[in-house]
Amino acid sequence: MAIPQAIQSAGGIMVTRSDRSTSKKSRGALWGWAAILFLVLGAGSLATSAMSQAFEKSQAALAEAERVKNVPTVSSLVAVGQDLRETMAVLEKIPNVPGANYELAQSDLQKLRASLEEVEYNRQAMESLKAAEDLAMEAAVLVQNPPHPVQVWREAEEKWQEAIANLEAIPADCYVAQKSQEKLSAYRSNRAAIGKRVAIAQKAVKFSNQGSAKISEGNYKVAIQYFDQAVGLNPNLAEAYLGRGIALSELGNDRKAIEDYDRAVKFNPNLPQTYYYRGWSRYQLGNEAQALADYDEAIRLEPDYAEAYLERGGLRYQGELEQEAIEDWEKAAELFSDRGDLENYQIAQNAIAILQNNLELTADEFDEFDDANDANDAELAECEKLAESDSWPETCPPRDKIYVRRRRRRIRILDLPINSGSGSTGDTGKNTGSDTDKNTGSDRSFGSSGSRTRGGSFRRRRKRR
Predict the structure, then answer these.
(1) CATH 1.25.40.10 region(s) of the chain?
(2) Of 265, 138, 250, 245, which is closest to residue 194 (Cα–Cα)?
(3) CA-to-CA distance for 265 and 242, rounded, in angstroms?
(4) What predicted TM-score, i.e. pTM, was given to this entire model?
(5) Which of the four CATH numbers 1.10.150, 1.20.58, 3.30.390, 2.20.25 does domain 128-197 have?
(6) Protein fold of 34-126
(7) Is 1.10.150.240 the CATH classification of the domain at 270-464?
(8) pLDDT in tens for each of the 465 residues of the chain?
(9) How far apart are the first and last CA of the chain?
(10) Which residues are CB-neighbours of 204 under 8 A, at least 6 positions away?
């Protein structure tokens, strides 16, 4: 009888195909374990050495984390944290197989994680301390060489407050808790001192703004008193020097006015109004070249400064630069029109018309013009004399009206006849109203919208011929 091919004899043992398959799987599993054992144990000294180094590094990292507690710095804590993470990454790869020291690795990992948590906790505290110290240094540097404008004091106060907030956020159980508390006390004292400086600077601004209001009323002597108080509290307040200079100029003391304008430039060289008003005073003293330079600078700082174009046009006309004068007056007219100032727009247009039509006044017309203004000046002088120790006399015209008439004497285009037949327009005077910024307390008086003179040097040049 033939033996089926599916059944074969092997030493008396019958082996089926299914038995051979199972045998192959068993041999594969054994080879797998053999490979693992070879990697963990069979790789011999290589595997053992790597694990040994990992455990040594673990102990070293834990020891370094303890050491930096004594003299912690942000950089040292960052370095220790990185070392702890690298060590943890190595130990986390050790498998849970016999002979791999898996339990020891897990024990060290637990210690490393706790140490890393403590290091990170204190690193954040150290960073808060470092940020507070940096802010304190910035605040201290900011207020060196006082006095300063109110904005500077406020900025310093804000830095101290931010530094205090950083210190207050530091936990009481961290490495630098005692040091942060010591600094917190000092920083609070510094903030209080700066707060007093802010109050003084704000008071100076208030006096300056009150002086500005008096200028708008034409009360120059009282305005000067307010400005004196302002610079007494804050000798670096540029706006107060500017205001006092304007008041002095209106009282006829252009030399003293220029001294104040110079101070204003020293403490704030970026105020275009200072150059504008100094240009006027320099022109009054016959320094046309310096006046022109001032108007140039005012326009450079504020390219839309319509009044500066109007004045510079007058000076350029006086210097025989008629085309440049027309360009300035056209620019002034455009800017006045854009902001709806029709009165000054008409003045600029009148200037252009006079120049383009080459109008001349007869000697009789000049005499008539001057006589009328001389009478107005005399009337105002008498009223101001009566008002020095009292309120504005009832027998005098309203202060603002006579003030406007007096200012017409300085307007060298306003009352000149022009071919177009349009009549003369009134002068609105200076717009030096005070507007204190509610957020910063800064003085924003003497805006460029306030024209001191209308028409530049045009009339004076005509009269000198």
Answers:
(1) 270-464
(2) 138
(3) 9
(4) 0.57
(5) 1.20.58
(6) Methane Monooxygenase Hydroxylase; Chain G, domain 1 (1.20.58)
(7) no
(8) 443 444 344 344 344 444 444 445 444 444 444 444 444 444 445 456 777 888 888 898 899 888 888 888 888 899 999 999 998 998 888 888 887 888 888 998 999 899 899 999 999 999 999 999 999 999 999 999 887 888 889 999 999 999 999 999 999 999 889 999 999 999 999 999 999 999 999 999 999 999 999 999 999 999 999 999 999 999 989 999 999 999 999 999 999 999 999 999 999 999 999 999 999 999 999 999 999 999 999 999 999 999 999 999 989 988 888 889 999 999 999 999 999 999 899 988 988 887 776 555 445 544 554 555 555 566 666 666 665 555 666 666 554 444 333 333 333 333 333 333 333 333 333 433 334 443 334 443 454 434 444 333 433 333 332
(9) 153
(10) 150, 229, 230, 231, 233, 234, 237, 240
User: In the structure encoding, which two tokens stand for residue 204, read together?
Assistant: 């100076």
Residues of the chain with CATH 1.20.58: 34-126, 128-197
Helix axes 74-91, 45-67, angle to 10 degrees: 150
CA distance 3 to 206: 122
Take residue 68 and report the two structure tokens written for it: 């930096």
